[in-house]
Amino acid sequence: MEGYRIELMNPNLAELLRITDDVMNGSSKGWRPDPERLNFHGQYQGDLHVGVDLGTAYTVLIVLDENYQPIAGSYQFAQIVRDGLVVDFVGAVSLLRKLKKQVESQLGFELSSAASSFPPGVAQAEVRATANVLQAAGFECTGLIDEPSAANNVLRIDDGAIIDVGGGTTGIAVIKKGKVVYTADEPTGGTHFTLVIAGAKDISFDEAEELKKTAREQAQLLPVVRPVMEKVGNIITRHVKSYKVKKLYLVGGTCAYPGMDEVVQEYTGIETLVPGSPLFVTPLGIAMHN
Q1: Which residue range(s) make up the domain with 35?
Q2: Is residue 138 predicted with pLDDT exceeding 70?
Q3: Residue 266: inside a domain, yes or no?
Q4: What is the CATH number of the domain that holds 63?
Q5: I want to staple 185 with a disulfide (CB 3.0 to 4.6 A). Which of 91, 97, 146, 171 is the partner?
């Protein structure tokens, strides 16, 4: 998490994200349930909080214990959502079933319920489609929350704007006195980074996606993707200018690209901060909603 700057209301954020990163990437020692909390059928009787983030680039499944600490999770790149809309229902269900089995293997028991999220401003039919994916994958959908508001479950911002830059869209939530007072969502995200790299290098989308994630290539590619970062800055400026926002908080996997915060701050003229492991901030907040 070196290189990231963050000033937030949540004093435990850095440690929470460090633990989350270890859990999601298999570096933690693993969690085992108290045997006394397993019933005759092997079902866990304690309180768990499960979140599913069906993203344009990554689908994330994360499990928190009763103290809202991450204990298990899995994630995978998959293009099952476009601009916040589920475009491959069968593929989404198949992937989520796969992640569910992986996480249940880590835990040693089955998961029965989960919360999920949606970009702000999408039609109710699309929100229901997200719930239907969870139900078809074997979860009871116990809650749905817009993505920036989910992120603020983790960040606990009192005033500012949360900018959730995912694979396909940029979601915005303006926070005043701890409450969300405005939300918006527009196409533009990490997929657009990949597309401009593919065009500039004359390579396939999949090759460009891998190049984008290769640390040693990212500084060289910054001039290529900078116009997309500036477009994100333009989207932010148009939506927050009426609210006198003094700080922007960037989350979403796209914001892990080195230089993203500096470009957005330069374009908007607003102080811009990004936490470590920004990919997992929203999934954590979704789980906290369950």
Answers
A1: 13-150+280-288
A2: yes
A3: no
A4: 3.30.420.40
A5: 171
Residue 268 lies in a domain: no
26-30, 191-195, 256-260: lowest mean pLDDT where?
A: 26-30
State the pLDDT confidence band at 275, using cuts at 50, 70 and 90. Answer: confident
| Count: domains in the chain | 1
Q: In this structure, is the dihedral angle defined by the CA atoms of residues 189, 190, 196 and 202, taken in order, positive or negative? A: negative
Q: How confident is the model at residue 44 (pLDDT cuts 50, 70, 90)?
A: low
In a domain, 85, yes or no: yes
